[in-house]
Design a protein that fits this description.
Elements lengths: L2 H27 L3 H13 L2 E2 H8 L3 H13 L3 E5 L7 E5 L1 H9 L4 H10 L3 H17 L22 H8 L2
Antiparallel strand pairs: 1-3, 2-3
Length: 169
């Protein structure tokens, strides 16, 4: 097998593993990986604003707001304006969200993070460098991304990021 075939097969396996895990999460919880991670972040941080969530998750405020809108429609979160500073709006979990989080499977990046952290520093550097180079070779360095292993657009809206990246050509 040629080296290019080996690379393409490895990339396809990563994409498929991400897709399969995403479908598993959706089937077992009715939520996407970004939605589960957002709920976990709110649970860990307590009273938190959208800007703080966006910063903690390396996502834009618009993306986090879209995810929160969907979670609010499903009854997993509610928002409350701060009494002292009316400009601030805090996001809170509902009891339904806490129940879902108790039984939710571990997101794929949690497993990856544990194994990645067990690597030697030189291995981590090599992987990061190689993946950054692959992204550049695929002309994907312009695509906005966050550290969430999931398929498609992070907020499940039309995947404008990819469309816009290819329009730059």
């Amino acid at each position: 097998m040629s080296p290019i075939d080996e690379v393409l097969i490895a990339l396809r396996r990563v994409i498929r593993a991400t897709d399969m895990h995403s479908k598993y999460l959706s089937k077992t919880t009715g939520l996407t990986a970004p939605q589960i991670l957002l709920l976990q972040t709110i649970r860990a941080k307590g009273d938190v604003t959208v800007s703080k969530l966006a910063n903690d998750m390396s996502l834009s405020q618009a993306t986090v707001t879209t995810i929160i809108d969907r979670l609010e429609n499903k009854g997993f979160v509610f928002r409350e304006r701060c009494k002292e500073d009316k400009r601030k709006v805090f996001t809170h979990l509902t009891d339904a969200a806490l129940e879902v989080l108790k039984s939710a499977p571990t997101p794929l990046q949690d497993q990856f993070t544990k194994q990645f952290n067990d690597l030697q520093e030189w291995e981590k550097t090599m992987i990061i460098s190689s993946l950054q180079r692959v992204a550049q070779m695929m002309d994907a360095q312009h695509i906005d991304a966050s550290p969430v292993l999931d398929v498609g657009s992070i907020d499940r809206s039309e995947n404008n990021q990819v469309k816009n990246a290819y329009r730059r050509e």
